[in-house]
Design a protein that fits this description.
- By secondary structure, the protein is mostly helical.
- The chain has one domain (about 5-70).
- About 70% of the residues lie in helices and about 0% in strands.
- It has helices spanning about 5-25, 35-60, 60-70.
- α1 packs antiparallel against α2 (about 35-60).
Length: about 80
Amino acid sequence: MRNQRYVPILSGIFDLAVALGLLIFWSPESGGFWWWVRSVPLFLFTYMGIGSLKRGFFASDTEIARMVAGEYNAKD
């Protein structure tokens, strides 16, 4: 199977781009209700993006192939 390392890297870049878009284009007043609502997806996309980039750069080719095939278990 060919190297599929680009899949988690692109996924991580996309997730971080969404988080950056939330920061730039949705800026409610600080401390308000919508500021807290925005912080939840902002945190989630940042967390998922960093995790994907970490897997893309440091996981073995076998782990990446399993993840891309849908056989990835986060507990492994």
